[in-house]
Amino acid sequence: MEQKKGTYIRERIACTALERAKLSLMNPAVIEAKAEERTIDETAKPLLKLSLEEGIETVWDRFEQQQPPCRFCASGVSCNRCAMGPCRIIPEHNRLRGVCGADADLIVARNLLDMIATGAAAHSDHGREIVETLHKTATGEAAGYMISDPGKLRRIAGEYGIDGAGRDDLSVAADVSLAMLEEYGTIKNEICFTRRAPDATRQVWDEAGIMPRSVDREIVEAMHRVQMGVGADYANILVHGLRTSLGDGWGGSLMATDTSDILFGTPDLNTSHVNLAVLKDDRVNIALHGHNPVLSEMVVRAAGEPEMLDLAREAGADGINLVGLCCTGNELLMRKGIPQAGNHLNQELIIATGALEVMIIDYQCIFPSLPRTASCYHTRIVSTSPKSRVPGSLYFPFYPESALETAREIVRLGIEAFPERDPARVLIPGQPVEAMTGFSVEAIGRHFGGFSPLVDAIAEGSVLGVAGVVGCNNPKVRHDEGHVTLTRELIRRGILVAETGCAAIAAGKAGLLRPEAADMAAPGLANVCRAFGIPPVLHMGSCVDCSRILVLAAGLAREIGVGIHRLPIAGAAPEWYSQKAVSIASYFVASGVYTVLGVMPKITGSPAVVDLLTRGLDGLVHATFAVEPDPVRAADLIEAHIKEKRSGLGI
Ligand code: XCC
Ligand code: SF4
After folding, report:
1. Which positions does UniProt annotate for [Ni-4Fe-4S] cluster binding (predicted)?
2. For the residues 528-539, what does the mean pLDDT come to?
3. Which residues contact 270 (CB under 8 A, 6 or more apart)?
4. What is the C-alpha to C-alpha distance for residues 65 and 63, in angstroms, rounded to an integer?
5. What's the 366 CA to ligand 1 centre distance in angstroms?
6. Whose CA is nearest to atom 7 of ligand 2?
7. Tell me, which fold does domain 11-64+276-425 have in CATH?
8. What is the pLDDT of residue 95?
9. Which protein residue's CA is at the shortest distance from atom 3 of ligand 2?
């Protein structure tokens, strides 16, 4: 169906908040208590109270409405895959198999493989769009984009065996982008970037039969295996999940990261600000939400143009203030120092500030209900991806060929909305917190002078080990508390923390991305941080940039001369919700990194699956999952694991 540019998808939504407020009429003490129990983000609390008072529905309200959850779904033993079902396993009633004969183990494993494949597909499809943009840039179809990191382009050309000597950047980029696009369906039976992993790790994959053959192939095969009547052995299904996830981590996500670096610049250390207070009451505020930097980079350019600033002044504003949300925000924060307004559970509250003119969304992690929230304010929600049209939003389809032009139109929309802002309803609570970001692997290498100083610090024990704390927010966990408590505990124990995604944003809001946060770290780690002028928590980027953590691990492993599984490192996702996070956790484990989840996956209906994931995988990939909702106990697990790995290395 053709959707005209600049028009509403379906129709504009009417605000129903007041009716809801009348329905609820909550007493102030209850509102106060709810805000406290829902978040530890001090800038979020006043807005949460406001939304409760005014009946502006949020994710927490919907979460409450959904309680209690179906216990079959929650434990993974419901199946809705085919038309003979739906089926549930209810041992008490002697219902031990679905109509087709699938038992609890199979149903749980199939559901989990489905999640992994979905997450891997999301990351990889995002990656493909960026690689396509690189190709269009190379062939001159995407005016406005350019090669920002030619050095990285040529290093990657080298990995593909592309001879760049005597050729200009664009012609090399044409070959590199085609080689990357080919990875999605390659018949070479191996993804090129898996060669970045140390030999010992690649050997583990070969022996386990999980070397990813191409990005798409593993995802398609996963979908094939969950079709009724294909995969019937839960273990065989889960092992394919590992293979699928490796195609994400070392394939689709890594290509997303590296191609974004080539196009927009490899992040380097910079300082910016984080939390909802980065909105400015005298500016046109535009938030960029989602995951793909291809559009947002152009919005940054458009918003800086003198004509736009003139227009903003004519509309009575002092300028244009761009802020980020979630991972599009992380991409901009890492590369451009654009302030980061918040993470997943902040996305509705930023609208409740009453000071947001436009929220531009691309895709992933965007609540479909955002236009309902915006309907009670002057805020425009702008959908930009043909694959993520959100009813009630304005549609400005975005294509690399006409990127800058579209970006300008959206910025103008924000300027036009500014006079409609109601100053009486503006609430921008608190002050922004400073945050140092930009820790790409390249920047870390440059800043430390190679990997050896970090390896030395680990060897002599001033740094006990490294933990990757990543992933989302989830209303099942008090907003940010899982991330912040775990991160504080880890640095207190001398463990250097690398973060991405919403975890990194939580750390930023809590002040853990400031060099002064070294004061909260164990003395040895604190000294290393002070010597290098860095915080004990390194912001390494967006969700797809979890691939940077893999590359960092590979670099440390090569430096020591071991497989990744022998390093004193661990992963954690304290507040995960997304299928993408399941794929990330799976490729961490498949790469040899012990990973602790703070939210229980839907697997408890199969003790066999639980046992395989938390113990059995050790025999296959030398790493396992653990689940520990208490962040202090999660830190205990990680510390014990790191110490064990240290003694394995004799340090
Ligand atoms: Fe989404 Fe990437 Fe999760 Fe945050 S962390 S809720 S996936 S924005 Ni990746
Ligand atoms: Fe039921 Fe089997 Fe169909 Fe699932 S695949 S819905 S368990 S019959």
Report:
1. 291, 327, 365, 472, 502, 543
2. 97
3. 334, 337, 436, 437, 438
4. 5
5. 10
6. 98
7. Rossmann fold (3.40.50)
8. 97
9. 82
